[in-house]
Design goal:
- The structure is a single chain.
- By secondary structure, this protein is an alpha+beta fold.
- Helix content is 48%, strand content 18%.
- A two-stranded antiparallel ribbon has the order 1-2.
- The longest helix is centred in the first third of the chain and has 15 residues.
- The protein is elongated and about 40 Å long.
Length: 71
Amino acid sequence: TTQSMLKLLRQINRQLGVTIIIITHELSVVSAICSHVAVIGDGKVVEQGAVSQVFTSPHSAVAKLLLNKEV
């Protein structure tokens, strides 16, 4: 399941100290496992930062659309 995979990825990250890059449109996955996020629109990074910052105060139209914030 998704939760068991996220648990495994967290364990690998903590034990080995490696960076893990996850590409997804599932924002629940991002909020569950990531500390930082990059939002891509039209093949370019349009916003990046700490997950908490981007999720609570998105600046780009793409991030606002993904988070269902007013554009």
